Amino acid sequence: MKAIRKSVVAATGIALALSLAACGGGGAGRQKDDAGADTALKTADPVTALKAAVAKGAEQNTYRTKGMRKNHEGEFTTEGAYQVKPDASDGKDVGPKTADAPDGVSHVIYVDDKMYVNTAKIPGKKWWTLDMKGAEDPDASEPFVLTASALATAEDVRNTGVETVGGRRAAHYEGTVVLSRLAAYKGDAMKEKDRDFYVKTRKDEGLEKVAVGVWADKDGVIVKTEESGKGSKGEYRRADEYSDYGADLKIQPPPAADTATEKEALEVAKDLPGNKL
Length: 277
Description:
Strand content: 25-35%
Shape: globular
Number of helices: 7
Radius of gyration: 24 Å
Helix content: 25-40%
Order of helices and strands: HHHEEEEEEHEEHHEEEEH
Structural class: alpha+beta
Distance between the termini: 50 Å
Number of strands: 12
């Protein structure tokens, strides 16, 4: 709830207004509103709140992320801008240096059914492109929706209190998602396609269970998610903060002059043994 402040200062009331400001009277209303909002967040039922956050998240068409990921491939810092319809994204990972990413940067842009990938292997070009039209699409919900809905199915889901994330007060919900149990889930907290996608991708990370955290503000907006676990492929951790819901992200393809075609990229791959694009 946004604080609504009304003030009427007449000539005879200026001294009173100044005295209230001097002793903090102007902030008392805000503190009261903040305390009331915190109380509501602290006492929110986790399943009800997470379902509302999932519904709210499903309405969002654009958003930004910033976070980290650690798995068997290494540890990465991540950031991205995403648009649901029409589908577009601009995501960057910074992690270990490899032959394909000698500076440790992996940058992928997706616009108009074309994927653009940064490269250091094509002379005179910074990018190469691949036509993704007709490619298989898992048709799953956005990551924050997947994570929040999975948590809503956990048997031990709980509200652990209120924290400040990205300058916003948010309730922190956490619990453990057991993938074998989730695979058999038939309730209304998670769509079947999302359930199957979540189970598959987390099992692909070698996990059998995932410790999940979701932070949602008083409006039901998800501001942060976390996942962690240990499995057959070692430690897995991921944390993401979300912002700029509904913003015009202006996601654009890289300049054509800097971009090699798929044919050009394949020619380079053919001429350079061992090259992987």
